[in-house]
Amino acid sequence: MLLRTIVLLLLLLGASGLAQRLAVIGDWGADSPHRPKVAQAMREAHEKRPFDGLLTLGDNFYPRGEPIQAFLDDLPKVRVYPAFGNHDVPALGAQLRLFQVERPYYSFRLGALEVFVVYSEVFDAAQRSWLEAALRASEAPWKVLTLHRPLYSSGLHGGSRSLRGTLEPLLLKYGVRLVLAGHDHDYERLEAKGITHVVAGGGGAYLRGFLKAVPQSLVRAVEAHFGVLEASEERLTFTAVAPENKVLDTFTLKR
Question: Is the keyword Lyase assigned to this protein (predicted)?
Fold first, then answer.
């Protein structure tokens, strides 16, 4: 009787009560006025409702990737799952040791969510084979790809045509619904071929404006921010938050 009551309560509460919650920051490791404000906003959000981890989108430390302890100390005290960008390449080995990952591409599972971290600086045949095998084997309700260089972007750097050509067929084949990237120092949400793309490169580096909006662009903002990614069995929600708890954008994907 007690077990039936517990199951009924869980059904009434919905899967959102069991959601995994990740903070997301891109292009954050810069000595700018934005970085400490974003870090403080993340800590405050973590105190109100704890994160299960922190996902970075690369360019973890400027200008040449050497870890800066003071920047790390500003982050919420949770496990960090890093992606690596162009500014991280010169000190990639030091960052791999710091974050305790064996190589710059890997995957991890948290509840209903599996995240596939891609190393966009050197996306070779070996990494592609690994990614396809990992996507094929995944049984997670939600598959999310993260990398530094975006596939689509209206920002200064723009989307990577080569990565798009290589990765997009895999995303479509294996049901990836969300791609998170940085590199352009802004916030943008785009949609292409049924996949939502987010550029969240406003974690601390100096901001840049947009060029001409690409056709896939839905939402754009030039503000410092971090993201909150929440995954339950039935829903995947992303919210972009600027300092002082200002919501720039939020959206929910449903199975």
Answer: no
Q: Is 7 domain-assigned?
A: no
pLDDT in tens, the chain (255 residues): 443 333 333 333 333 346 999 999 999 999 999 999 999 999 999 999 999 999 999 999 999 999 999 999 999 999 999 999 999 999 999 999 999 999 999 999 999 999 999 999 999 999 999 999 999 999 999 999 999 999 999 999 999 999 999 999 999 999 999 999 999 999 999 999 999 999 999 999 999 999 899 999 999 999 999 999 999 999 999 999 999 999 999 999 999
Q: Under a CB-based contact definition with an 8 Å cutoff, are residues 121 and 86 in contact?
A: yes
Rounding to the nearest 10 degrees, give the CA dihedral for residues 170, 176, 177, 182.
-80
Q: How many CB atoms lie within 10 A of CB 252?
A: 12
Query: CA 245, CA 233: separation in Å to the nearest integer?
Result: 27
Residue 46: burial class (beta carbons within 10 Å; 0-12, 13-18, 19+): middle
Tokens of 103: 């190589």
Would the pTM of this model clear 0.90, i.e. be above it? yes
Tell me, yes or no, whether 5 lies in a domain: no
Classify the phi-psi angles of 25: left when phi > 0, otherwise alpha if psi is within -120 to 50, otherwise beta: beta
Q: Is residue 1 part of a domain?
A: no
Domain of residue 64, residue span: 14-254
Instruction: Give the count of domains, the chain.
Output: 1
With contact defined as beta carbons under 8 Å apart, do 150 and 183 qualify? yes
Is it true that the peptide bond before 76 is cis, omega within 30 degrees of 0? Answer: no
In a domain, 4, yes or no: no
